[in-house]
Every structure is written in structure tokens, then in C-alpha cells.
Fold this protein.
Amino acid sequence: MDLQPEPYNVDTSLKDISDRVEKHATILDAIRKEISRVIVGQEYMVERLLIALLSNGHILLEGMPGLAKTLAIKTLAQTLSLDFNRIQFTPDLLPADITGTMIYNHQTASFMVKKGPIFANLILADEINRAPPKVQAALLEAMQERQVTIGEQTYRLPEPFMVMATQNPIEQEGTYPLPEAQVDRFMMKVIVTYPDRETERKILRLNLKGKLPEVKPVCSANDIIEIRETSFMIYMDERVENYILDIIFATREPEQFGLEHLVPYIQYGVSPRGTIFLAQASRAFALLNHRPFVLPDDVRAVVADVLRHRIGLTYEAEAENISSDKIIAEILRKIEVP
């Protein structure tokens, strides 16, 4: 697990934390406003990107092509003055194409390191399920350890660092399902849907102008690191902690929470990594809403995105069209809100 800042420093007064939250939440509002000049109707996706970035996590987006997934993360990078690289995953891609490799230099008669596109702040792994497992595994060390090993040397990745992967939900031919261990590395799995009619009208009119508005940088990489530190200072009451634990344990032992009817549908529940990510995402959501403390509603707002890819479903669940989202909704209905 990554070592994170202490969630709450007793030596730091609530007033100091409130001041930091208000200052940094205002910056985050400016970031979202700047992105909205280019990205129309995907406020939910942009908000989730910021939550993952502030929580030092990664995000998996599932949606049809043409829903501005690539444009969103590219615009986010421009708004934050961060380096951005896009990696198109294909069946012939090699691990070295992502991480880098050793190249022989004839002039010096020695090997030199050529770093791959993974060395950037924001990485778009486009159609990640198009590449075989060996290539997908090349991302694991980078995602978990924030480092890459090339030859005998290990190189730290820049901070902040986030991987945003995309996959098409309907096209299965020529794809490789992501291993469960890798899916669990993603903090959130977000389902990107079509915009409504009026939003699509705005998208149409914006693109008919021939050129999208230019995005101005709002803050730097160091600012994001400082805002991230603030997100880990957000206060979480013990009752909210217990609420998170109840939700997690209900996925593992549903019968203990009066959810016996879910037992045939759950093959395995959420891991401790999911518990940590749910707490981190709840803090980041509270910060985005100008609050120095976490409410149960913050947990409920992010729980589906954090847990939907961490609940293993049985064949019976798939046969009866019971999704992990339905299971999460049933758990939220049953667990008492503090």
C-alpha cells in the first residue's frame, strides 16, 4: 500500500484546516470552470478525475467512443500545467513501448536508457483491454509503486502521477479482460454515458465554431500536491468510519446485515484497498464541496464508483442480470446512515 499523509493532525486546528479547504476548494472550482469551456456535459467525469488525482489514485473509464474521455484528461493536464501522454493499447504493443528500454550507444560503446511514455504526470491508457496481459502488467509497478524498473535501475515517476484507462463496454472481439489484481489497482471505475439532448446541442454548437477555446493554466503540479495534502487533512468522524466499514463488510458477509438474499450473488467482497480508497474519495469529495469534514452523503456519492469493480459476481448473478451496482444500491438501502 502507498504511504499517505496522516488523515488528521491533532496539532492542526479545525480553523486552519477550514482556511486551507476554502482556499484550495476555490482553486478546484476555477479548474472545473476552465475545463467546462471545452468539456460540455461531462461534469461527473471531470469531478471523478479530480477526486482520483487528489486521492493519489487511478481511474478506469468505461464508455462508448466519442464521449470526450481523451479530451477531458488532455484538457485537465493543460489546466494544471502537467505533462500528458496518450498510449494507444494494441495487440502488438510491448511492455518496453510503455516503460522504456536500454539502447546501445555506438559512440560510447555502452547502453543508455530511453524512457517510455509512462514518464508523465497524466497517462491516458486508451482501450487498455486491447493489449495482452504482459503489457497490461507493465503498468502495475508504475500504478502501485510510482516507479519503473528499466534494466537494473529503478526510476521514480513524476508527481503528481495518475493513470486514466479507458475500455469499450460492448466490443469484446480482440480484447483481453483485465486481471482482477490490476482492476483492483484502479481507485475508481466510472461509467461514462451519453449526454442529454440539450447538452448535445451545446456540444454541437461549440464544435461548429471550428476551433475549441484555449484552456489557460489555473495551477501548477506543486499546487496540486499541496491541495492533495489538504484533502488528507479532512476530518472523518468515527461514526462515518463505521459507516464505511459496515458497507465494506456487507459485501463480504451480507447475511450479518440482514442481506441473506445477496449471498448467492456475491463471489467475493471488497478488499481493504477498497476501504482505504472509499475513505480517500469521500475526503476529496468533501473538499470539492468546500467542507473540512466528511458527511455520510459524501460516502454515498462516491461509493458506487469505488466499489463496483471490487465485488465479484457469481454465475447466478450474471444469469439473473444482477450487477454490482444493484448490490451496492441494496446495501446502501439496508445499512443505517449515521
